[in-house]
Write a structure and sequence with these properties.
This protein is α+β, with helices and mostly antiparallel strands. It has one domain: Endonuclease/exonuclease/phosphatase (Deoxyribonuclease I, Chain A). The chain is built from seven helices and 14 strands. It has a six-stranded mixed β-sheet. Helix 4 runs parallel beside helix 6. The radius of gyration is 17 Å and the shape is globular. The termini are close together.
Length: about 270
């Protein structure tokens, strides 16, 4: 099976805007559509609480006519049009969608950050992990989220194997970003966030990219938009992951980033598993 995960940074804009950035985003969407993935996980949809309008639904259908989808958006008391996730899955797959709340600090559980699909042989979880924020203002809440999320994923793994993916908003090791020294204690590379990800892996999960590629350097999934040369210079971070239950790690045949062309921000990541 083939899976793709991508933080799109506004599905809303991608489907309806004519800005230069939206056009680049649609190019990436077209590449994803051509891949024939069984499940596509989208983070940061930024859709309203009621979901897509008719125009957006029609635009999405043009890209993905052979898919059904599940989605969740932020709702009160969370900010409107914030975060949000969507899972597209091929028609004909036996899927039950759940929108779990994990007891995270308010309003994180209301920000539309997670969808879990149950299939006959495994769970597929997609997550958009909260960012620690400017000045690390949300770091303490993020630490609680990390603990609650690890507990939740472990509860799934006790039932059947798990494939999990998304924007985890953390570069786990120094090799996972271009400039670790100057970014130490920046959001996404604090000791606390890295320890939280280490704990998650210790609960019985494997970072599939490192499992397949070992300690290959210079492999990133995100390049800052505000720095125009960040992607040209490959000054990036690897903060998007596919994780699998330890017991199925040897079934992974591919785990890598997809080419997103000149578009900065996140690149899609792809997993293939027997």
């Amino acid at each position: 099976m083939k899976f793709i995960s991508w933080n799109i940074d506004s599905l809303n804009a991608a489907l309806t805007s004519d800005s230069a950035r939206a056009l680049l985003t649609r190019d990436v969407l077209a590449s994803i559509a051509e891949s024939g993935a069984d499940i596509i996980a989208i983070q940061e949809t930024k859709l309203p609480t009621a979901g897509m309008n008719a125009k957006q639904k029609a635009a999405l259908e043009k890209f993905f006519p052979d898919y059904d989808y599940a989605w969740v958006s932020s709702c009160e008391p969370a900010r409107k049009g914030y975060a949000g996730t969507m899972a597209l899955y091929k028609k004909g797959l036996s899927v039950r969608a759940d929108y779990p709340k994990i007891g995270a600090p308010e309003p994180m559980d209301c920000e539309g950050r997670m969808i879990t699909l149950e299939l006959p042989d495994f769970f597929f979880n997609l997550v958009y992990t909260p960012n620690a924020g400017d000045g690390l203002r949300r770091l303490s809440e993020r630490q609680i989220w990390d603990q609650k999320y690890a507990e939740y994923l472990r509860s799934l793994d006790a039932v059947k194997p798990v494939i999990s993916c998304g924007d985890y908003n953390v570069a786990h090791e120094e090799i996972d970003l271009a400039n670790p020294a100057s970014n130490h204690m920046s959001a996404g590379f604090t000791d606390e966030e890295r320890a939280g990800f280490t704990h998650l892996l210790s609960c019985g999960f494997v970072d599939t990219f490192r499992h397949v590629h070992g300690n290959v350097p210079g492999a990133y999934s995100w390049w800052a938009q505000r720095i125009k040369t960040s992607k040209i210079n490959n000054s990036g971070w690897r903060i998007d992951y596919f994780l699998v239950s330890e017991r199925i790690k040897d079934k992974v045949t591919k785990s890598e980033m997809m080419d997103s062309g000149p578009r900065q921000d996140h690149a899609p990541i792809i997993l293939e598993i027997d």
